[in-house]
Design a protein that fits this description.
This protein is α+β, with helices and mostly antiparallel strands. It contains 7 helices and 5 strands. The protein has one domain (11-145).
Length: 146
């Protein structure tokens, strides 16, 4: 039986990320690990969001020769989240800045509530600075949330 993580004072989980957890076989602990210690953070595609990822490399064993003759296959697990803070929404200068710059202010992040929006597996590796593809249904849901 699958149990979903519950909302806390610091973290809120959307229905979309819970659906993606089931689809991509991700646990709440995996998502929180990526949030706390990502390999890379970038600005998300949706406004005022941050995308974070961890890389997973797996060697595949060739079934016919039963030996390691293939190159390692990289896979990235991405999450997208938003920092919701009253200080950010009231301060016009912070609102216009990149979410990554706001993320560097640890005191502001610790006082804020984080909304985990989406999670997905990306087969392969992306270049730093290259935005990961976000499905249209996720963007539509983000616009409806506000």
């Amino acid at each position: 039986m699958l149990t979903f993580p519950k909302d806390t004072a610091q973290i809120s989980w959307t229905r979309h990320i819970k659906n993606k957890m089931v689809f991509y076989h991700l646990s709440g602990a995996q998502i929180l690990r990526i949030f706390r210690k990502p390999d890379r953070r970038e600005e998300g595609i949706a406004p005022q969001t941050i995308a974070a990822m961890q890389t997973k490399v797996a060697n595949r064993i060739s079934q016919s020769a039963n030996r390691l003759n293939q190159k390692p296959r990289g896979e990235e697990i991405w999450i997208m989240y938003r920092i919701n803070s009253k200080q950010i929404t009231h301060n016009k200068q912070l609102k216009q800045e990149s979410p990554l710059l706001v993320m560097s202010d640890k005191s502001l992040v610790n006082k804020s509530r984080v909304t985990l929006i989406s999670a997905w597996r990306y087969p392969g590796t992306t270049k730093p600075g290259e935005r990961p593809p976000i499905p249209e249904d996720v963007l539509a849901e983000l616009e409806s949330i506000g």
